[in-house]
Amino acid sequence: MTPIRVMTIFGTRPEAIKMAPLVQELSRRPGIQSICCVTAQHREMLDAVLKIFHLQPDYDLNIMQPRQTLSTITTKCLLGMEEVLEQAKPDLVLVHGDTSTTFAGALAAFYRQIMVGHVEAGLRTWDKYSPFPEEMNRKLVGDIADLHFCPTPANRANLAREGITDGVFITGNTVIDALKTTVVKDYRFSTNLLNQLDYTNKKIILVTCHRRENYGQPMANIMTALRRIADAFPDTELVYPVHLSPVVREAAKTYLSGHPRIHLIDPLTADEMHNLMALAYLVMTDSGGLQEEAPALGRPVLVLRRETERPEAVAAGTVRIAGTEEDTIFHMAAELLTDEASYRAMAHAVNPYGDGAACRRIVDAIEWKFGLRADAPEEFHARNV
Q1: pTM of the model
Q2: To pair with 206 at 20 to 30 A between CA atoms, which of 85, 166, 216, 285?
């Protein structure tokens, strides 16, 4: 029997972290020929993840350019995928989440009438400009996709609200699978500062802030609040791996540089970020992925956005939305730094996003769809969601 040709397409660091264990699972199945294509929307950060997971792409579009725009990313990806799909002739294309690579990859496959599977399907804020452009990317991919791999029942309900009910599977989130590979005991960081921090006697706060919708005043508010937290709580140290975006780096330098307990460092590799998260006391972030990863490691998360497409974590109690107003951010952080009961309630909540078997469920669903197994895959359900 001819193997099913399954192509994974991704281009950014967050996509790579979540797709790498899926590529590995696809490669283990005898009835599937796994083909990996990267766009390199984020070149350096993508390459670091590929190295960690020992992945060698079959195709590399290498589209990244200085000060790239959404239009250049999308068009270069779309044009590059045209040739790749012609050569590889996959039976199924898998895209992940909500990036410009995700949208362009799905659209390129649609143009060639190739079946599309959407990993991490069904996330919604119902505001097309927040997060921007991610909300519209994932909605458009939802309309294109034939198979929808939802992390949670709430994601499936979001799709049903849009009339999408066929080919929908609840799998958990593949990032939990990735953590099983990356987090290890007695981890040594390449940045020596991180090896010297006192994780036992200090409250280490891991910070990320980079989203486009936070550019301008929201980012100024967030960073002012962060400096205020460091000033008010001498037992805290803030570690901020600063995104490569010139806008973000300039803001971090303006508002946070020069403080003895705020450490502005270069972006970390996926394994370094995961291990730092495991050692931190608290995570403050506008990232989507960290909202899923930190709860799996027992770390409370304050979301530096006005809303989240991951309300399951809020319902479970692992995440709270702090928004982008200085006073709110400061007071919510202060509560977790001073109220032990409040902190424990978040740290010990059940993670609603997975059990480390999402990739197995996704590939089981693909095999079932193509007639390689008789039984439909089991569904993931968190205990308290």
Answers
A1: 0.84
A2: 216
